[in-house]
Amino acid sequence: MKIALIQTRTPATHEAALAHVLPLVREAAAAGAAFIATPEGTNILQKDRAILLPRLRRLDQDLVVAGLRQAAQDLRVWILIGSALVEREDGKAANRSVLISPSGAVTATYDKLHMFDVDLPTGESARESATYEPGDRAVTARAGDLKLGMTVCYDLRFPALYRALALAGAEVMTIPAAFTRPTGQAHWEVLMRARAIETGSFVLAPAQGGRHEDGRGTHGHSIVVAPWGEVLAHLDHDEPGVLLADLDLAAAAKARAAIPALANARAFADPERLG
Q1: Which one of 87, 147, 153, 171 is the catalytic residue?
Q2: Quick one: residue 57, left, alpha or beta (phi over 0 = left, psi -120 to 50 = alpha)?
Q3: 186, CA 20 to 30 Å: which among 62, 69, 89, 213?
Q4: For 175, what's the count of Cα atoms within 13 Å in the CB-facing half-sphere?
Q5: What is the fold, at CATH topology level, of the domain defined by 2-261?
Q6: Active-site residue, 153 included
Q7: CA 223 to chain centre
Q8: What is the crossing angle of helices 159-167 and 181-199, to 10°?
């Protein structure tokens, strides 16, 4: 199955974001991709909460979501919006991954579980929990022949989530991201390959890249990893673009049969906490 990852440099308004991502989606479809995934924050990126929050809309009212639903229908492709930053029904904000079928219907959503609350050695800090309400459930979904485990960015650092998704039948882990440059340079590829190897799954990681309007810098380097851990395709830069790859969907079963770690794992008592 041919898939495509879209690497973006999402602007700070919905209108500009849609104008930015749509041509890349069309390019991917024209190249034969049946499944197209975009990064985290596809609909808007704005780190100033006072500016961002009044701009957020509910999922069914979001301009970019509506535009990509129409594109999926027009192009007859599956589109995974890596995440849209949206208003929840209770008025709080969510970082939400959205799966759209070739009919334009939303067939699955996942709210990011793990909030990126960190102080980096470079002096940069992030408090995602100050803006977004975390999700409370893991989500699997089907996109044609793809059995997806839906995650977002910082979720990457919590391997128990991916094990749970794999045990639920997921064979393709989607990890759309807006990785910072320092963490991306240090950990991006090795963690993506680790999650693939541990679970015997494909990893699809479309990324934001470059210097954005709101001043943030993101790592780019979108990547596709096979279940045995080899890199099938990657972008070696942070510019907007399209990354294509062909997935042999039998590879997950082969990898899991060769290294049956999912089946061999045993329950154990927690160790004593050291003082």
Answers
A1: 153
A2: beta
A3: 213
A4: 34
A5: Nitrilase/N-carbamoyl-D-aminoacid amidohydrolase (3.60.110)
A6: yes
A7: 11
A8: 30
Cβ distance 258 to 239 under 8 Å?
Answer: no
**Catalytic residue of the set 40, 87, 147, 171:** 40
Q: Is 254 a catalytic site residue? A: no
Q: Which of 87, 112, 147, 171 is catalytic?
A: 112
Per-residue pLDDT of the chain (275 residues; tens, 9 = 90+): 999 999 999 999 999 999 999 999 999 999 999 999 999 999 999 989 999 999 999 999 999 999 999 999 999 999 999 999 999 989 899 999 999 999 999 999 999 999 988 887 777 777 889 899 999 999 999 999 999 999 999 999 999 999 999 999 999 999 999 999 999 999 999 999 999 999 999 999 999 999 999 999 999 999 999 999 999 999 999 999 999 999 999 999 999 999 999 999 999 999 999 98
- As beta bridge partners, residue 218 has 180, 210
Q: Does residue 88 contact residue 117 with C-beta atoms inside 8 Å?
A: no
Is 40 an active-site residue? yes
